[in-house]
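S., here's the first fold you wanted:
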Amino acid sequence: MEKVRLGIVGLGAQGGLYAGFLADGKVENMVIGAICDIDPAKKEWAAEKYPDVPFYEDYRDMLDSGDVDAVVTCVPHYLHPEIGVEALKREIHALVEKPAGVYTKQVRELNDYAAKKPHLTFGIVFNQRTNPLYQKVKEIIDNGEVGQIRRTNWMITTWWRPQGYYDSSAWRATWGEEGGGVLVNQAPHQLDLLQWICGMPEKVYSNVKYGYQRNIAVEDEVTALLDYGNGATGVFITCTHDVIGTDRFEILGDKGKIVVDDSKKVTIKRLLKPESELSDSMSMQDVMKIFMGGNQSDIYTEEVLEFESEWGAQHIAVLENFTAAIVEGTPLLAPGSDGIHGVTLANAIHLSSWLDKEIEIAFDEELYLAELNKRIDEEKTAPVTF
């Protein structure tokens, strides 16, 4: 295969972005094979912009056409697993957008089917995994440079969305069409990075507000307490009503601390001795000397790294890695099967708030789906008020 022909399902903002990258030759060994969208206006636009590219109104027709070797799913979240499975059934490689789905049961079905097709490439667009900053943070954790994790804290409230954003489309911020709010739309990358870098918690307890500051049915404010099962804990906070916004990720280990500010700067403080040794060996006089104007370099070293990320580069990197996996067998940075982890976290946070109790990460998937369907049914009969 000289060039991978990518079928783009959904020519919205994301699908249009990918089409532009491919048309401009920015992705090595990948071209546009076909485009699919149900909107007649998109068909007209594509005919002008990409006159030589086949256009389909039904993604199944596109999959059956022979025009594509792989697909990317730029459609509402509920459809990602369905289209992924249909592509794999036809021996077509699948790249699903985040999140992998709305609820774990449907994502697990996709993963189980993909496992039966190991010769096909199945990926997910977790473009933040290509970010050198987060790759560096993961490397530091994996190397044990700050020791065993004791606590994680991530406040990511840079997702401000005005009411007009939610009013722009009928499907936005609905249980039936989008499947949730900030946890499934804006924050899936952070949920993925959190577990990719620090591991999955064992339990979740959350306080979630639905339609707190916006006239919507789904969540716009989330505070979740994570229990990693070994004594370590975490806090994850996100919302869509903080116009100023904060992006700060802290990882405390027994040998140091990592602080990420604005996804641009990383401060690494490495203890010269593990914290437990300092506790056992230092007198109060030693403590007073150091922490009351003394030299803290006797306790830790400090390294500050700053990163710049070119717009679009991360998405291009995902497409190039996906292509290399197809053509050369290069390992995927984000295997599609990894998509279930972030969905699991989001589902557990929802379920904890719905049932007002701590939830095991290995929760009952049927119970979650039943609770989700309750909210879909309520949404159909009760208008949202604010």
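And the second, which I think is the more interesting of the pair:
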Amino acid sequence: MGQRVIVVGGGVVGLTTAWWLLEAGYRVRVLERAAEPASGASHANGGQLSYRYVSPLADAGVPLKALHWLLQRDGPLRLRPEADPRQWRWLAQFLRRCNTVSNARTTAMLLQLGECSRTAMQQLMALIPPDQFAWRAPGKLVLYRSPSLFDQAAARAKAERVPELGQDDGQAVRLLSPGEALRLEPALEALQPALAGAIYTGGEAVADCRAFCLSLARLLHSHPRYDGTLHGDAHGWRIAAGKVVALETSLGPQTADQFVLAAGIQSRDLAARAGLQLPLYPLKGYSLSAPVRPGDLAPSISVTDFERKTLYARIGDQLRIAAMVDLVGERPAIDPRRIASLMRTARAAMPHAADYAHAVAWSGLRPATPDGAPIIGPTPVPRLWLNVGHGPLGFTFSSGSASLLAGMMQGRPVPIALGGLTLR
């Protein structure tokens, strides 16, 4: 009989963690405070699985761009200063990482994690049929309005050459003129005059994260070593002889041999109750899910408008539009002004793509580290492990980070360098 593990968090990171631990031989129980899985940041996120397009927010020039964004009516960034030292600590650490060297280092790590995640997701899709969560792999188009930004991105793509530009392997990177981008994706008709160019990456996918979580939850319940899901609040830890021996919850203390924090931004406070300071801050994002009707010109390819920081993904019979980074603390409520801004952006970019009048709005708190890399692995507190801080790429990296954590907990060698992904 395997060791018992409690995973705190029933979003996509927590559920994938539970699955890979079950497969590694552990007995697993999940604690989730909501009535159903994927009720937080996993509920209506952008839906893009961008394994090869990883663009950490911290980069050279971002501080100056941020000042410009803050002055824009429909800018992608909002900042509400708080009397919370965690906000200012995170911002200071973020600014220190806004340089080319740090960005390149983080990007290299995330590309390795992306390939690991692609492989792990393919293994899961052998058990969860792709049509259960609207999975498709139409590729990804990143649009650039500024000629200089497009030239910089094109030079970076040529330098990386992963794979070779023009190589026809189904995942090739292609540099496109505005006209070529329109021919590849007719839904760009209204945007095409404003474009300087685009970069297409084949093989990138889209899917419904919530539907994936619901299917994965059913799969967990069918596993012989799964000890079920508890619905309650986590309050803190019971520590004896320097080790975590129980999780204090609204349902009473829950004992196990190991504990994994995968509870989104809630992980920050729970870690603090074990004496750990996690460099996490909630990046509040928004989305619209608009029905696609017969005759609508919805994009087939996953599209990211680089300067507007807005993505468009056709997920089943819905168009998902997601955007924005609001640094406003733990305020989950939808800001109607931001939704109105997102609606204006979508209508201007793709006016005939969906039934915007019946779009459903959502907002979520995405727990991010200053450099954009998640934190995976052990803590200084024995028996307490982390799988947190994935920011806007939780769906993309969930399967890979879960498989890595399971290997680390077993003491097995892991396939990628972990120096930048562990608790620093």
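Why I say that: The first strand starts at residue 4 and ends at 8. The two ends are 34 Å apart (CA to CA).

Talk tomorrow,
H.
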